[in-house]
Amino acid sequence: xxxxxxxxxxxxxxxxxxxxKQRCVFCKDGPCENAHITNGGFSRKAxxxxxxxxxxxxxxxxxxxxxxRAMERxxxxxxxxxxxxxxxxxxxxxxxxxxxxxRKGNA
Length: 107
Hints:
two-stranded antiparallel sheet; 4 strands; globular
């Protein structure tokens, strides 16, 4: 995977590390992996907006075990909404980090 594709799929190294520190959206355990909830078509991973934090066990269940719809039913969640919320939380985190960086630079 080239640099541009990696950035599309995962966003940034900071985002990957941030997701890894979150609790699993299913079992609330951690650490987490960046779990894509859909694909990007043509055997590609979807972009980073479709990532949720999932521990290794739940990520495996999601991808190779019971599948997406069964996981939604079992844990009473909506994967699309969880991905949207994850992305929203990341963007807020990035905004805070940028503002702090600017304040430090102006101090």
